[in-house]
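Structure first, sequence second, as always.
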């Protein structure tokens, strides 16, 4: 299995550069990579024991591939495959496919890293490739959004690198396990870098504009998998170093409430989805031991929602209330909204039940409020008018069927969720959310200020989080 893992890690980079040399085969070479990753991810989920590869033992440079890695790798594989199918007939250049596969390979690398220096290299590559994809349309707006993302990402990684070097200074190793003996400032700086990269809490407020202004397939990749490269290491830290578990959980609750608080009042469909990415990442962090399954379901549903939103006649939710959608598009939108709201028969139900059962007592009220907020937000899609003509782009349905099919099949991961008590609680939460939407939120025109998202304030948000982290680490 060690050889297969090394081939699987290297192959996306080899194929990525081969695509540029063989542009007529770009789509076929590209789609082979997520298929391979799907098989590898499934194997790791069901493997009886983790795979631990020591690459540079003296420096603690290691790879760790286990069930947690498997869920994230499978998410990356299915989302990448869906994006490639969506773009199959869209005349994308070989450059686009090359960058997509390089991004896929770099994201995979993060999901099996177990040391700070390998993680740093992978995250930096992701930052550059994501910038190139965001700026792919070559418009002034896309280049500005891409540069904004790159600046925030590089600043965050600078903090992370200083923290990683402090860990090495204290333990003479880059291994994640050294974080338990690292000084407070190292923990704070590493967490700040990853929280910002992952779009967590106020340091992640760069995310709504970046994800909502990118091209539809790029938004699906960013929200489906790229932000999880900042979240995955935090889950790994919480599982390896028990002292860090409360910090990760606290940021999970705070992020879930912050994101959903914005999403409930947002009138732009893509911005609402982006704020919900922030909120759902909070759910992933709130219960680290089951975060892998939640990340899988969120990746599938959020990518599907971004692809659907890109095919709606308007981004403005008020305008959409006056434009009937085709039955088929509305059906796809409703299935995805049902899953993220936690209704039975879709994997979002099992993921929410599993997460709620793994919460600590002090988290329960906050996460239940966030669940109600999710139901309120997605009622905006569910109650849209139906009966219009279908006008979707080529490649839309293969991508959507793959993602929604994954939401149904992923139910097998946690069939024990299907009890009467869990079903009643889920339906009750969603009904309360829909009632609040219908009675109050639907009529409101409240517009929350965007000042915290402005470029000049994003670094200030990072300073606030750094101060908070120092306080939490010293407590």
């Amino acid at each position: 299995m060690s050889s297969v893992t090394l081939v699987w890690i290297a192959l996306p980079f080899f194929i990525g550069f081969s695509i540029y040399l063989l542009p007529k085969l770009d789509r076929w070479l590209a789609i082979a990579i997520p298929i391979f990753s799907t098989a590898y991810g499934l194997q790791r989920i069901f493997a009886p024991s983790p795979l631990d590869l020591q690459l540079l033992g003296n420096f603690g440079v290691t790879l760790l591939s286990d069930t947690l890695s498997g869920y994230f790798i499978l998410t990356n594989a299915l989302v990448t495959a869906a994006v490639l199918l969506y773009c199959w007939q869209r005349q994308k250049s070989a450059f686009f496919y090359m960058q997509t596969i390089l991004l896929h390979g770099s994201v995979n690398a993060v999901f099996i890293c177990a040391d700070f220096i390998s993680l740093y290299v992978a995250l930096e590559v992701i930052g550059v490739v994501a910038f190139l994809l965001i700026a792919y349309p070559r418009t002034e707006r896309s280049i500005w959004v891409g540069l904004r993302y790159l600046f925030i990402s590089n600043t965050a990684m600078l903090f992370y690198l200083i923290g990683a070097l402090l860990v090495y200074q204290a333990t003479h190793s880059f291994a994640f396990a050294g974080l338990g003996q690292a000084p407070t400032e190292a923990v704070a700086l590493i967490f700040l870098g990853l929280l910002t990269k992952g779009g967590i809490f106020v340091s992640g407020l760069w995310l709504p504009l970046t994800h909502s202004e990118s091209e539809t397939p790029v938004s699906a990749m960013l929200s489906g998998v790229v932000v999880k490269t900042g979240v995955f290491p935090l889950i790994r830290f919480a599982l390896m170093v028990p002292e860090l578990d409360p910090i990760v959980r606290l940021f999970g609750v705070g992020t879930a409430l912050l994101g959903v608080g914005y999403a409930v009042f947002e009138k732009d469909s893509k911005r609402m989805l982006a704020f919900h990415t922030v909120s759902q990442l909070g759910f992933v962090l709130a219960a680290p031991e089951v975060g892998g399954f939640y990340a899988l379901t969120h990746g599938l549903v959020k990518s599907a929602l971004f692809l659907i939103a890109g095919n709606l006649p308007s981004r403005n939710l008020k305008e959409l209330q006056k434009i009937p959608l085709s039955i088929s598009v509305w059906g796809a939108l409703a299935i995805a909204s049902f899953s993220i709201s936690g209704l039975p028969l879709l994997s979002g139900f099992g993921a929410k039940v599993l997460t709620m059962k793994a919460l600590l007592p002090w988290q329960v009220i906050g996460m239940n409020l966030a669940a109600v907020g999710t139901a309120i937000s997605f009622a905006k899609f569910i109650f849209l008018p139906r009966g219009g003509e279908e006008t979707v782009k080529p490649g839309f349905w293969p991508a959507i069927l793959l993602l929604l099919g994954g939401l149904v099949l992923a139910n097998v991961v946690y069939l024990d969720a299907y009890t009467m008590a869990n079903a009643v609680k889920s339906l009750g939460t969603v009904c309360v959310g829909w009632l609040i939407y219908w009675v109050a939120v639907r009529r409101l025109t409240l517009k929350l200020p965007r000042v915290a998202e402005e470029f000049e304030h994003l670094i200030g948000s990072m300073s606030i989080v750094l101060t908070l982290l120092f306080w939490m680490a010293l407590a």
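Margin note: The chain has one domain: 1-474.
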